[in-house]
Amino acid sequence: MKAKLFIRAAAIFVLLHLMGHIVGTSTWKQGPNPAVQTVIDGMQSQRFNFMGRMVSIGDFFEGYGHSMTGVLLMIIVSLWLLSNDTVSRLSVQLRAVIGVTLLFLAVMEWIFFFPLPAVLSLLAGACVLVSLKK
After folding, report:
1. Based on the number of CB atoms within 10 Å of its own CB, is 9 exposed (0-12), middle (13-18) or buried (19 or more)?
2. Which of 13, 25, 82, 124 has its CA 20 to 30 A from that of 117?
């Protein structure tokens, strides 16, 4: 299989990850049961001053979710653009960085979140790194 196909497969894995992330980010305030809803309400109700702004842990949680959406989108676009240039030295270096970053992301998602995003990041990272050998 050509490097271009591996890189585009990686972009599709990250796209699937992004789609799930968007759903999660847009629905996190709706707890699946009363106990979880109590925690969510607590995350949003307790506000404190942080660097001159009144915020809650829920604000940080939501902000990180939206930020991650932007990062995943940037990775998708970068991979798609890099798939058109699989031979230049800069392309190889950038793919190596993105591949390692996706593997790091997979480990963090496995530890702190749940298996599906971790597996998608792992598959994407593996595809990118395999593309370096093609």
Report:
1. buried
2. 82
Q: What is the mean pLDDT of residues 71-100?
A: 95
Rounded percentage of the chain residues whose pLDDT exceeds 70: 99
HSE of 129, CA atoms in CB hemisphere, 13 A: 13
pLDDT of residue 86: 86
Rounded to the nearest angstrom, the gap between the alpha carbon of residue 79 and the centroid of all alpha carbons in its chain is 14
pTM of the predicted protein model = 0.90
H helices present in the chain, as ranges: 3-27, 34-45, 57-82, 89-112, 115-131
pLDDT, the chain, mean: 95
pLDDT value at 87 more than 90: no
User: Cα(96)–Cα(89) distance, rounded to whole angstroms?
Assistant: 11
Q: Is the separation of the CB atoms in 42 and 93 below 8 Å? A: no
Closest among 5, 7, 2 to 102, alpha carbons compared: 7
Closest listed residue to residue 106, CA positions, set 80, 75, 77, 133:
75
State both tokens at 67: 């930020």
Cα distances (angstroms) measured from residue 121 to each of 16, 53, 84, 90, 108: 10, 34, 21, 22, 10
